[in-house]
Specification:
289 residues; alpha/beta; eight-stranded parallel beta barrel; two-stranded antiparallel sheet; 9 helices; 43% helix; globular
């Protein structure tokens, strides 16, 4: 069986400006790759620009965009895409991902709005993804997002996600926290959802914390520790699809690096357990063969 290749390996961490200095002193060996929003770094010069360049020269990076607004009715910002293309090349970025949502029409909304789960929206979004991939001359990964309403819904979330991935022929950034959050908010089985995704399209995985607003409402904040049910979904992802590079997202209430790295260690522990299980299975198969 052919081994699947990924743009990065192991466990990663989202890089925020407020942790750049502490992360470098010394850089934790457990962190195999880093992720940034390109919008926060394109065109940045001076001290921060030099510091960022030193990071991308020493470490593997992926980019997770904020402003592509792939589901928007407004035209794609192709000027931005050309700047992005240069940025990805300059910093040897291994993968570019974005949210399967939209955040603009005539202006930016500063929030991720849900795309209607309709056939018309599938075609609209897939065409735009293909155009982005043509301009960037590389595949992009779309992330399954958290959402709190489903206006104009004609199909289930998983059907919509799979239809977009198939029609656009793009990759998937699998966010297991978003699956958990949506499963509570919209009343579905997270494991059933996970089992229905196309595993061969996954580029990497996001894991994060969220906020409990109410018994039946979770808010995706990236501002808390990862909880056990989300770790369990990550574990099941590896069982279903093999060990996949996984990144810890933390945007707010950021603890000391030593605390963050404990969660990165948890990713490694789950990965190693499934890697060892795979090695054992292969060894048993060879012996029997």
């Amino acid at each position: 069986m052919k081994q699947k290749t990924y743009p990065v390996h192991g466990a990663g961490l989202g890089l925020r400006r407020e942790i750049m200095n502490s992360l470098a002193d010394p850089f934790p060996s457990q962190v195999n790759f880093l992720e940034v929003a390109p919008e926060n770094w394109i065109g940045v010069g001076g001290r921060y620009g030099k510091q960022f360049r030193s990071y991308t020269e020493q470490h593997d990076f992926v980019c997770h965009g904020l402003s592509l607004s792939i589901g928007s009715p407004a035209p794609l910002d192709e000027a931005f895409l050309h700047k992005l293309k240069s940025f990805l090349k300059l910093h040897n970025i291994r993968c570019y991902s974005e949210h399967l949502s939209y955040c603009s029409d005539d202006g930016h909304l500063y929030d991720l709005m849900p795309i209607p789960f309709t056939e018309e929206a599938v075609s609209h979004v897939a065409d735009r993804i293909k155009r982005v991939q043509d301009i960037l001359e590389q595949p992009i990964a779309m992330e399954n997002v958290s959402y709190y309403a489903a206006p104009g819904k004609q199909m289930e979330e998983i059907e919509f996600l799979n239809a977009v991935l198939d029609e656009a022929d793009c990759k998937l950034l699998l966010d297991v926290n978003n699956i958990y959050v949506n499963s509570i908010n919209h009343g579905y089985d997270p494991y059933e959802f996970l089992s229905a995704i196309p595993g061969d399209r996954i580029s990497y995985i996001h894991v994060a914390g969220h906020f409990n607003e109410a018994e039946d409402l979770r808010v995706d904040t990236h501002g808390a520790d990862v909880i056990d049910p989300v770790w369990a979904l990550l574990d099941k992802s590896y069982e279903f699809y093999g060990v996949i590079p996984t990144l810890l997202e933390r945007d707010f209430n950021i603890p000391p690096i030593s605390e963050l790295v404990k969660e990165v260690d948890t990713i490694h522990e789950i990965q190693q357990r499934w890697e060892q299980a795979g090695e054992h299975a292969n060894h048993t198969h060879v012996q029997r063969g």
